[in-house]
Each structure stands twice: as C-alpha cells, then as structure tokens.
Give the backbone structure.
Amino acid sequence: MSFLRAVRAALVGQSGTPRILVAVFVVLAGFSLSCGNGSQSTAEFNHNAYVTLPAWGSVLLLHINGSTGYISTGAQTPQQQDFTPAGLAFLPSKNILYAINAFDDTISIFNVASDGTLTLGSSPTPVGSGPNAVVIDPSGKYLLVTNNYSNGGDVSVFRIDASTGALSPVGSPVPANTNPTAILFTHSGQFVYVTNPEIGMVTGFSFANGVLSLVPGTPVSSGQGGGALGLAVDPTDRFLYVTNPSATNLPPNESTIGNISGFNIDLTSGALTPILGSPFTSTVGSVGPTTITIDPTGSLVYAVAPGSTFSVWCFAINSNGQLVAVTDSPFSVPAGGLFALFDPSGRFFYIGSPTGVQAYTYNPSTGALTTIQGSPFFIGTAPGKMVFAE
C-alpha cells in the first residue's frame, strides 16, 4: 500500500473495502459514549459537534458539556450505502453541515435543527474524484474541496447560496499537484494551502472572489520523504506548520520518526520560506504526527501521532515562529492522530482515535494535558473528522 493510500485509509477508517458498510453497532440517541462511571443531563450540554463515521456511512451528533468537556451522543443519521463521509464543514450562518463523500465523489448537505439533529437536504452535489478534505472561507461565501485523483489532483471551488446554502461550481477545478489532501485558509481568507503527501510538498494559492491563483514558488518541499500531511497556521497568519509523519531526522534525533516543517508566510504574496531551524522534531517518538493544531492562545502547537506512547508533541511558538518543546513533551497519553481540535470555548482538547474520541483539558501556560473524566468516549468505529457547531 502506498503512503498516500495508507494515510487515506487511516483518515477515513477504511481497510481496503471502502464501499461496504459494516453495521455491527447501533448508537442510540442520548446513550452515553463513556465507559466510565456516571451520566450527565443533556440540559448541561451547550456545545454540539459532529463526527463522520465512514465505515457506517453516517454522521453522529455529539453533545459537549461546557463545564466538564464530557461527551454524550445525540442522533446518528441513517446509514447509507456508498456514503463514506470523510471531511466536514459547518456553516454557522445557515446552520448547514457539509459532508464529503470520499468514495462516492459527492458533497452531502445537511440542515441542522435547533437541537442539533441533521436532516439530509437536496441531492448530493457532484465533486471531483477522490474528494478528501473541505473548508469554508472566512467570509462564509465559498466552499473548497481537495480531490485526490481528478486530473492528477485538484481543488474544486463552490459558491454557497446565501439563502439556501446550495452549492454551485466556480469555474473549473484548479490543479493542485499530486494528490492534494489537507486544505486550510489563512485567517484573513487571502491564502489557501494544500498538502501533497505523496510527493512531500505544500502548494499555496491566493484567493479572491472564488478564484485560486498559484502562489509563486509553490509547491515547496516539506520533510524529505516525510509525506506532508497536516496543516496549521498561527493567528497572525505569519507562520505555517506542516506535519511530516514519515520523515527521517538528523542526529541527535535520528531515532525519532517524523517532524514538523515551519514556514514564514509572506503577507503580500503568500510565498513560503522555511523558518530558521525547520524542520522541528521531538526528542523521542517511533510514530510520526499526522495531525496538528494551534491552541486558542496562539502560542502552543500540538502535533498528534497514533498510539499512546510519546503521542502528543507540544511546542511553544517563539517570536520568529520557531518551535520550542515544552517541559515533558512529548506526552505519553492516548491519542490516535485522526483529528485534533479545541472546542469553541478553548478549554477542551479532542483527539480522534480508532474507536472514538480522547478528551483532555489543557494548561495554556505549560501545555500539559489532563484526561477528562469518562474519556475515552467510544463510538464503536473509527471517526473520520470532527467539527463543532459554533
């Protein structure tokens, strides 16, 4: 299995039979995910989130307790043959959830009710071959999707109807080099970056009125042989960080697998130049990080690898964008590497694992993680992606 196919299999929870649904476990609305003790009233939950369940062809509603971070389930959408949801994007202004169907080459549109339940809207919107990830621009007017296999790899751009949330293509898909995977907007909405894991590169675009234009000098190389995968940008839009899960490292860290490339972003052109000292790595780690995020303060980078040993790398960002490992990093806590994100309040940190969601509180001063009571929250199958309804 090629590196990219292995990554895609991991990210969508597949093992070579993507179009077969395995209906062996039913999640009931209101049933606690936790195997821990205790239960909590749904009245205490003031955040909703969604996770894709690729192997089951459905999307699951999660209720998050704003005081404790505890997770309980809501409703699960009916399982659908050939519906293999991977990426998710939520549009707050219209209470609409978009789900990317990785093997059906479509985008499903769900209407979100006041209690968070999902109703499938209009017919799925066709997209390119092998869609992987989706993102909405900061203005909420456009939706972008990476297509692994279309024309050697491209990005589809859709205009979002301001009244209905329906999608209409903007021009033709834009070439984005081999097998584009993760996609990210800068906070300004001016630039878009895409990873190309199979060739270990990052491709950049400027973005205006739905039009993507290639950033000069891109694609740029990330970790040599590393399969550039996850993306994160700091709150100032000055620095871009990319995980390289299989990259090799120079002494004294030659025993560590994987690293993180750091790039300076030119605020005018979007061009990328390596940050001094890049790539950055952990002092120990036998499995490289696949996903990456930045904490709500904008001062800490978390890169997450599968497993539970040295699985969460945590770095402070200095004024030059360099990454400096915090005390006790990497943390040996259960992880998973399927996704990593903070809740809207910025208090809780969630990581996708092969069977569910690992949940932590974090210390914004030290980066240290503390397991939330009841974690891990099992959902019986590997999630694809998770998104909050803010």
Observations:
- The first strand starts at residue 45 and ends at 53.
- Residues 3-12 form the longest helix (10 residues).
- Residues 326 and 366 are 7 Å apart (CA to CA).
- The helical segments are 3-12.
